[in-house]
Design brief:
By secondary structure, the chain is mainly beta. Helices cover 14% and strands 36% of the residues. The longest helix is centred in the C-terminal third of the chain and has 19 residues. Bound molecules: FE2/S2 (inorganic) cluster and cobalt (II) ion.
């Protein structure tokens, strides 16, 4: 397992997806069970130490996770507190434990880290600002590596092509020179102006929209779009590697203006994501190459180049999840 990514937080589910029943997710090839008790949300390795059953096909009862095979009950710290086959009062072996992982809820998502978190889940101001409404989109299960998905999110020059008719237009493809800066350990682009269809305009005129893209963590990125007249849209993207060629991605939008009917807004965002997925699922090699000579980059790709260099510097070894 990648020694760097093991210490990253990954968004694995929407909070609303975890109700009474435990849920299985896969993080870097590892099966994980997520469940909720009166104490909050918890994540364990999805494996009962007794006979290897998946705990995720069990139940949650009296704040314990009950294995479906022989009914062992694990409390939220992973300790086995009941073995039904034993005589009442018999001591429970100390080794009867579930492996626990750190787990938190933030931005309407459940985040899990398999190791020791290298950094907190990113704190992003607009998400705490009451002037913004937030909306969670996904899961997007994509047959592509998480790093390819994040790089696509950080890419400027595809917007007019892949999303033509939806977001922009090929006539406006030219990207002015921009810089990429390191700010508090993150990668942040200068402002980049993209001509986009105006949300509020029934004639959908193209207007200049100011973009700033940021790589927060190796597989968590952020985008701020300023439409003018104080209208701001933020998108947080978090991608969780299932394996080297499959990922699950969520986005959280924060908007300080009325985006219209929310189901329509959601449908447009899903459609935009589907357009990206067609590209992502057909890229070769499947994993993002960190060797800068492997593909041909231009000035307009500066953020992608910076992202690849940054991943290599962080010690991420793609292809080893
Ligand atoms: Fe879980 Fe036996 S396998 S209780
Ligand atoms: Co796109």
């Amino acid at each position: 397992m990648d020694e760097v990514l093991v210490n990253e937080w990954f968004a694995v589910l929407k909070s609303e997806e975890v109700k009474e029943a435990p849920v299985q997710v896969v993080v870097m090839g590892e099966r994980v069970v997520v469940f909720r008790t009166s104490k909050g949300i918890h994540a364990f390795k999805d494996l009962c130490i007794h006979r290897g059953s998946a705990l995720s096909i069990g139940t949650v009862k009296n704040d314990t996770l009950v294995c479906p095979y022989h009914g062992w009950q694990y409390d939220s710290d992973g300790n086995c507190v009941c073995i039904p086959a034993q005589a009442k009062g018999a001591s429970i072996p100390l080794k009867a434990r579930a492996q626990t992982y750190v787990c938190e809820e933030k931005y309407g998502l459940v985040w899990v880290c398999l190791g020791a978190p290298a950094a907190p889940i990113p704190e992003i101001e607009p998400y705490a600002d009451p002037a913004f409404s937030t909306h969670v989109f996904g899961p997007y299960r994509i047959n592509s590596s998480s790093a390819r998905v994040i790089e696509n999110f950080l890419d400027y020059s595809h917007l007019m092509w892949v999303h033509q008719g939806y977001l922009s237009d090929p006539e406006y493809s030219e990207i002015a020179n921009y810089g990429v800066n390191r700010v508090n350990g993150r990668l942040v682009t200068d402002e980049v102006t993209i001509f986009e269809f105006d949300f509020d305009d029934p004639d959908r005129a193209l207007i200049p929209v100011v973009y700033v893209k940021e790589a927060y963590r190796p597989l968590t990125a952020f985008l701020e779009k300023r439409f003018g007249a104080g209208r701001v849209m933020c998108i947080l993207m978090a991608s969780c590697p299932i394996d080297e060629q499959t990922s699950v991605t969520y986005t959280v939008h924060a908007i300080n203006f009325d985006p219209g009917e929310i189901s329509e807004y959601m449908a447009v965002n899903d459609a935009v994501m589907m357009q990206d997925m067609v590209i992502l699922e057909n890229q070769k090699p499947e994993e993002l190459p960190l060797d800068l000579q492997a593909e041909l980059s231009l000035k307009s790709d500066l953020m992608s180049i910076a992202y690849r260099k940054w991943l290599a510097e962080c010690g991420v070894k793609l292809g080893t999840v």
